[in-house]
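Internal QA ticket QA-208
Title: Verify multi-chain structure generation after dependency bump
Assignee: T.L.

Test input:
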Amino acid sequence: MTLARLIFAIGVFWTVAFNVSADAADNATIEQVRDYRLAHEKEILQELIEYLAIPNHAFRAEDIQANLEFLLSAFERRGISARILETPGAPPTLYAETKSENAVMTLTVYTHLDGQPADEADWSTPPFEPALKRPPFGDDDLIEFDSSKLRANPNWRLFARSASDDKSPLIAMLAALDALRTIGESPNINLKFFVETDEEQGSPNLRRILEHHKGLFADDDFWLFADGPMHESGVQQIVFGVRGVTGAELTVYGARQPLHSGHYGNFSPNPASRLAHLLASTRDENGTILIEGIDALEAPINEESLERLRGRLKDLPSPLANLGLAAAEKPGAPREIAVLNTALNIKGLSAGAVGARARNAIPDTASASIGFRLAPGVPPAKALDLLERHIRDQGYEIVREAPSADMRLQHDKIIRVTRMDGGYPSAYTDLSDPQAVNMIRIVESVRPDFITIPIAGGSLPLFYFKDVIGAPFAIVPIANADNNQHAPDENIRLGNFFEGIELYAHILARLGNTDSIGD
Amino acid sequence: MTLARLIFAIGVFWTVAFNVSADAADNATIEQVRDYRLAHEKEILQELIEYLAIPNHAFRAEDIQANLEFLLSAFERRGISARILETPGAPPTLYAETKSENAVMTLTVYTHLDGQPADEADWSTPPFEPALKRPPFGDDDLIEFDSSKLRANPNWRLFARSASDDKSPLIAMLAALDALRTIGESPNINLKFFVETDEEQGSPNLRRILEHHKGLFADDDFWLFADGPMHESGVQQIVFGVRGVTGAELTVYGARQPLHSGHYGNFSPNPASRLAHLLASTRDENGTILIEGIDALEAPINEESLERLRGRLKDLPSPLANLGLAAAEKPGAPREIAVLNTALNIKGLSAGAVGARARNAIPDTASASIGFRLAPGVPPAKALDLLERHIRDQGYEIVREAPSADMRLQHDKIIRVTRMDGGYPSAYTDLSDPQAVNMIRIVESVRPDFITIPIAGGSLPLFYFKDVIGAPFAIVPIANADNNQHAPDENIRLGNFFEGIELYAHILARLGNTDSIGD
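Actual output:
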């Protein structure tokens, strides 16, 4: 099929096929989508490669504009209306939508088009010249894509910035739509796309953008985040929540200048020792938080889903050996269970000097950077309030600037606490939500070894979606776990990309099947 | 008196006067020595200024040689035999001696001629161009020494590297001898001088030098260390001991690389938290060491002298306010009491990063530099052994290099401990030693507000003297406490220098008074 015919066919598909009821999806769909993909591998990969070839540093407006234009064309040639959402004081966002008269629900698919900065010097091949390689992915393993007569091997990988994070998922979703049209499946859902352009900057404008355009999403039933990697074991994961995040910088004060450790050792308080005692009082060695009040805030995790998770994890390998660890912090707790609770992480310590630079001095200050990963139910500001109450309970006077000379003489124990800007709470979809139940059932039907993650350890600003839009959501990733996300030589394994097309097609086809909703 | 006449007179003094019994010293001596000093201020200051004008970085052999030659001349023109002690593999040391036929004891006076490196850019006046200044010691407060017709004011200060540490004490001692000769007092002691040349480098060659030349000091009854500052309150102190010193570098290991604090927070052990717990377990917030076995090793301090010290300290101001502190580490304990015990000081902490450089990561390692200041009775190696036993009791496997991959998988808690090279134990003279009793009585008779310090907090390698020579000793300083020792704009207050001449003359005159020894 030529590209012109494909574009025409897709146009027809979107203007006609979506008006047809589409509850016939079943597992046979997967086979047909696979056949479609096998027949169109080169066109699909070609579209992905073109997208990846456009540099996408979030801070370069011309890069972002080029990516937006590429996507506007990609949607338009499929007959999907697409446009750029402008938001005062924020970068542009791509929005696309296609409606079905028989729609029983509305789904918005989230991806982002920007990537982490990539320094070409660190890469084996230039980050914006997508390179196809066979294992073991050395300099001699390049595959000349255009001249390749071979069918793509699932173990080949495409190397480029954003190959996994987060360009492949959108191309996979578009290929899934193309495949469904070709095989005559027509999802009975309204479908929208939201493509963010500064996710890798920490989504600093996301809340403003969502609030400015919230009317567009008022009827949303579900958000599907097509982002992130597969579970580290390699199996499919569906993630229904993330931890929140906040933190603080702490500085404990000693004498007004470093003092000779001989003349003053045992007389002038050692701020590094005081900091060690303070930090030791906030959490035990197993990570259990000792700050009163935090665990009481944590929302209980659905016990049934927890039991299912525990059972599922018994069959999966532990990442401990790969991390060079003999044991987990909470003895015996798998990672997916451990991260369901709030974590208090010491990100950094600094006082005086160590090693060859160490001096025989009592430091004048000792600092720690601490971060919270917040379980559902723990608001960032409340976590910091409880931390500060705990610090005061240890006898400290809290200051916001370096203490004045007078203040030093008034208080024995002085600490400066600088609360982190820009934290946010956990966001999650309850696993008993009908849409969540439906999504789990759909994925399970084609990925029986899948794993459901109630709360992932990391933090994403999903809270803004939850807070502004309010729809339930799930993250359904397709990228290989070892994709070098955010690092040099980022890549997507072709098998993951191709199977991702099948999975997304299956989800699009089945999501509007009313039989599977609401029970 | 011209310089030529003075040299002649001193020569006569040393060949004649020391053969005369000299037990007539009394408090009247002080008055006569003061008169001598008032009459000879300019010559005395001139000699000090000439000595200070010779650069004295220990690592520049030509500087050291120039200082040695200056001192050889200074001793020789007083008729005191002086020579350079050569020691294989060590820098030269100056030795001088003068004997008395009626000597009842032998005293060696210690000083050092080298100084801390001085960067002229940091100084108000060049460090080796001695500058006399009146308060408040600004750029406009220079006194043209040669043209001054004024009698020196005790509050003037002479600015130069080593003005206090440690050139003034030797010139004061020589001036004291000149004064005693002039007034007809003749000490009935054998007197030696030992002038070290790399003290500011930490005396790395001291033991070798002492062992090589120990025969020279076999008959020593006492060593007087003419070094260091007055008590911080400004009163005269006599110091009979110092703490020892040792230390270690500690590194606690986490996963083999920094990990995302979201994905792994609560799962992968946080080495910074483990280090905080470990450090908190070694000492409480008041500095009390919790490592089992260390306090049992500490030699008890003479209870009577401790009571006297406590009583004396009641009348002296606390340094807390000057240090910007509301309270001492051991609540209520004065510095001089607190430093009688072993101190465990955290000199530095390092893990990940703090402040703007902090990342949302679990650090892969966390390090601390710790130092011990050792009370009498605690050998450095034993302190480190007990520390390591304590660390093992906390469940750690101790390694000496970064752990291998295999070792990481075998042990949950791994720490690298690097023991400090070059530590040494405390050295002290028991306060019931007859020579110590005598020295206290002599100083007391002219400095009734003096303070006796059984063990100073700092560490000096006096252990080598104690171990190789074995004589009792005392440090009797004369420099003002605010002399900027080791720092830019080092200085000696003239009043301290002049009164130091009187004190040293009194000690030399009275030390051989047999009435005051042995009771």
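Spot checks passed. Residues 243 and 317 of chain A are 23 Å apart (CA to CA).
Status: verified.
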